[in-house]
């Protein structure tokens, strides 16, 4: 159900406490007006504690500080495409390039998910990844991670060793980050690759095969644009049967019904429809629509 904080400040807890004086379970604070989707916790043994609710990230809230609202959170952000499905979700993706993030405005826009850059090739971690992940979680947003791929043979001398080394490097960056709620993403847009379409396709498949649990327990996605994938991947690559698609396309008048998919995919799951979106005082942001309910 949809819930809204009705008191000035409400503790966010890791579990239902034994008593209200138990501060060991407090992991944050949310303020009046904060909205989230939650479910009532059953089996509270101490009647003095009242009702409690748990959100999708596993945080707990005292029901006495909450109002029950009808429906589901639908973004009140005005800069949205047209022809959106009723179950769409609005989100952003960020990296160290986003040096100014207005998290309260992002949450107020009913943003529900954030993809966070972790790495770029080999030995180039995104130094803001941990801070960005923690800030997103503090707003109760679902998080996922992406790696910017450099498909070549510089790391190891062969296509196989290069793809394996990049995948292992990406996994090492995520070891000390909060667990992802969303699929892991290969960012395929580096046009400096010397590889042929057949070699490039092989590199991508080796990278995917190298990725291991727990980093891919939510699945794997590819982020790119139609023109790039149609040019870089070999015909009949078969990746559309393995991984879902996050497509990049920035028309002047975004319309969800006019977003073509690259060869090999019948449809897309996420659409990055703008790369210079403005939310509050944040620096320009990538804006996304998720229509695939199975990802969330």
Describe this structure in words.
- With 296 residues, this protein is of the alpha/beta class.
- The chain folds into 2 domains: 2-69, Roll (SH3 type barrels), CATH 2.30.30; 89-295, TIM Barrel, CATH 3.20.20.80.
- 18% of the residues lie in helices and 27% in strands.
- It is built from 5 helices and 15 strands.
- It has helices spanning 103-108, 129-138, 159-174, 197-210, 226-232; strands spanning 2-5, 9-13, 26-31, 35-40, 52-55, 60-62, 66-69, 89-94, 113-120, 142-148, 184-187, 220-224, 244-248, 270-277, 285-290.
- Helix 1 links the parallel strand 8 (89-94) and strand 9 (113-120).
- It is globular.
- The relative contact order is 0.13.
- The mean pLDDT is 93.
Helix percentage range: 10-25%
The count of β-strands is: 15
Structural class: alpha/beta
Looking at the structure, the CATH topology of the largest domain is TIM Barrel
Strand order of the largest sheet: 8-9-10-11-12-13-14-15
Total number of distinct structural domains: 2
- Termini, distance in Å? 16 Å
Q: Report Rg.
A: 21 Å
Relative strand content: 25-35%
The CATH architecture classification of the largest domain is Alpha-Beta Barrel
- Output the helix-strand order: EEEEEEEEHEHEHEHEHEEE
What's the CATH class label of the largest domain?
Answer: Alpha Beta
> Helix segment count?
5
Query: What is the CATH superfamily classification of the largest domain?
Result: Glycosidases
Query: Which consecutive residue ranges, at least 5 long each, have pLDDT under 50?
Result: none
- The average pLDDT value, as a whole number, equals 93
* Shape, per Cα inertia axes: globular
Main beta-sheet strand count, sense and barrel state: 8 strands, mixed, barrel
